[in-house]
Hints:
This protein is α/β, with parallel strands linked by helices. The chain has helices spanning 3-21, 63-85, 102-118, 133-140, 154-163, 199-207, 220-233, 245-254, 264-272, 320-334, 337-345, 355-376; strands at 36-40, 49-53, 91-95, 122-126, 148-153, 175-185, 187-191, 214-217, 238-241, 259-262, 276-281, 307-315, 349-350.
Amino acid sequence: xxxxxxTAAHDKGAEDTTAAHANKPGNGFxxxxxxxxxxxxxxxxQDTATWHILAPMNTTLPFRIVSAAVCAAAALCCVxxxxxxxxxxxxxxxxxxxxxxxxxxQARLIVPKMSDVLGVSIIVDNRPSNNAIIGMEIGSKSPPDxxxxxxxxxxxxxxxxxxxxxLPYDPVNDFIPVSQLSTTGMVVAANAxxxxxxxxxxxxxxxxxxxxxxxxIPGATGELAGDALWKQLGIKMTNIQYKGSAPxxxxxxxxxxxxxxxxxxxxxxHLQTGRMKAYGITSSTRSPVLPDVPTLAEQGVTGYDIQxxxxxxxxxxxxxxxxxxxxxxxVAALQTNDVKERLRAxxxxxxxxxxxxxxxxxxxxxxxxxxxxxESGIPRL
Length: 381
């Protein structure tokens, strides 16, 4: 995307908003060209501008109402600028895992509404690989022009940062966080033929097997959650890498692997049909869709709380108007009744936070998982 064109489109959107609202009764103050100022965007070295509408000092309109109006106008300008600059080209949404996994399902839930809001076609592009490294590399190297969205998660952007000695992408600096989609705990899911029902039963069984049990690894968060748990239980397991959640599910159901750390979304149907059993969930609270599955903390695994989140990212240096437009479209999707109900039914808690809040969470979790990896003695890959 041409940054100059983006700035011009943004400028035009601000002028249109000014014309539409200038001297309108009930606004509390006239909005004119003199009230609009452009300041350099500190988040980007692109030639972009952030627009602020300033009220006269003597206005009686409450500041919170002004702020809401400004935010709405700014979001509208960003979406308008995005639509004008996209030239009708489709947007690809990269998912670093196989179809039918948690990231893929969530991507396909939000695509219709995001497409409507942005006025562009969005195509889900699955690039499955171990811990989604290939998809994240492709996303990180894509042009920052608004035509590539990336679905990442706590594994791709927080765990991988420390788990791997080197990566073909920088989980923090090569991306701009837009918003979290959801968060959830992970189920210690097992083949239905394994003995017992508690995490202690699983540990006792694993100790009778030379080398422990085979663990299907769907992604980096599952790998870290499992390694930290086995360390705390004093047992050894053998990790087997799979290209996402769906292949890991099949491995456990078929008996190719004994255990996997999977989301409630990935395990719910298998548990209901008796093809899997659950030894616990990694979060501090039970899942609303799996109320009978106890937390690991309830079973005596003290201090253990690992959650899996999914979020939307853009390549680094993407102009801020595009970031804001993508955020507006994602939040609109998460607020629709069908998406909210579907996420709830899948055991996922919808989030929809701001880019700044999401960036802080990524940085926090990089440090949190780094500490777990170092203190648990988990070998780096």
